[in-house]
Amino acid sequence: MANSYDSGRLDLPFVGISTFGKRPYQPDWNALEADVAILGAPFDAGTQWRAGARFGPRGVREASTLFSFGHAGAYDHEDDVTYLPASVRIVDMGDADIIHTDTEGSHANIEAGVRAALRAGALPVVIGGDHSVNIPCIRAFDDQGDIHILQIDAHLDFVDERHGVRHGHGNPMRRAAEQPYVTGLTQVGIRNVSSTAREGYADARAMGSDIISVRQARELGTQALLARIPVGARIYITLDIDAFCPSIAPGTGTPSHGGFLYYEVLELLQGVAQGDEIVGIDLVEVAPDYDPTGSTTVLAAQVLLNLLGFVFHARGAE
Q1: Could you say which cofactors this protein requires (predicted)?
Q2: End-to-end Cα distance, the chain
């Protein structure tokens, strides 16, 4: 029986439908009224080895309910800030429709979702899916002005074409660099056996990329790393979960040892949010079935919620 000071439902994390952060579901993309619009992109036909990222959006949404106890915002005692107050309107758009075996059709549906979020004045946050879903995300910004891309990833993803494939998960940063409104890329975490041959690295640098490995990032430190990102730029963040060490994020199709730990990425994201305008976000390559503990999906949800908190605190949300 409820106490006298309780009202409404307790709505614990394990109760109800798993929208992102238990925020409202808005399936009508022409009626979005929000500061943040979450879009699932459950497409993994661009993978070259282990599939399974099609279940990423569902897994990250479920994990995100862990952080949704109904409190007014999230108080961080180290920063002495309450992040994501009720004034920040977050809605879940659901998923873009995926057409099996049809990359272009599926990508077009993802692009339509991102464009709908942008039309509504919302910050688009896309949960993949493999990294190829970044291609339609970036296409959707063709009328938004110049953007700079911050990629946090184990792999360069700068293949031009391989056996006729131009829109797989090894191609997105090459496709992005080709866009006239993409002014450059900062590619952080790139390491070890990668997805791009030597000439791809030369092409990336020639097309405006600054490539930084995990070891180089650690040697630089967060502040020097942030100094490598253009000041005052409009930043699109693409975060591949395999940027993290598989010791904390095993649930991904192409794990690569030697990756970042949690605070290394979080502090970079916080610094970027404080110094630049974040205009779009995608988080990709979460494949929940490879991690029976669920820690990878929890990590993904936690990173996204914290990043959104940083972004809107920097915008003055109270």
Answers
A1: Mn(2+)
A2: 34
- Is 92 labelled as part of a ligand binding site? no
240 is in an annotated binding site: yes
Per-residue tokens: 232: 């005052």
Ligand-binding annotation for 242, yes or no, is yes
**Would you write out the chain's pLDDT as a tens digit for each of its 318 residues?**
444 445 677 888 888 899 999 999 999 999 999 999 999 999 999 999 999 999 999 999 999 999 986 666 888 999 999 999 999 999 999 999 999 999 999 999 999 999 999 999 999 999 999 999 999 999 999 999 999 999 999 999 999 888 898 888 999 999 999 999 999 999 999 998 877 889 999 999 999 999 999 999 999 999 999 999 999 999 999 999 999 999 999 999 999 999 999 999 999 999 999 999 999 999 999 999 999 999 999 999 999 999 999 999 999 988
In whole angstroms, give the CA distance from residue 261 to residue 166. Answer: 31
* Tokens of residue 50, six digits: 């282990």
Domain positions in the chain are 21-314
Kindly write down the DSSP assignment for every residue of 71-98, as one continuous string. Answer: -SSEEETTTTEEES-TTS-EEEEEE---
**Annotated binding residue 160:** no
At the second CATH level, the architecture of 21-314 is 3-Layer(aba) Sandwich (3.40)
Do the beta carbons of residue 261 and residue 249 sit within 8 Å? no
Q: Maximum CA pair distance of the chain?
A: 69
Count of beta carbons in the 10 Å neighbourhood of residue 229: 19
Model pTM?
Answer: 0.95
Give the strand order in the sheet containing 123-128.
90-95, 36-41, 123-128, 277-284, 234-240, 147-152, 182-188, 209-212
Query: Nearest to residue 148, comparing CAs of 58, 257, 65, 228?
Result: 228
308 vs 303: CA distance, rounded Å: 9
Q: Determine if residue 11 is labeled as part of a ligand binding site.
A: no
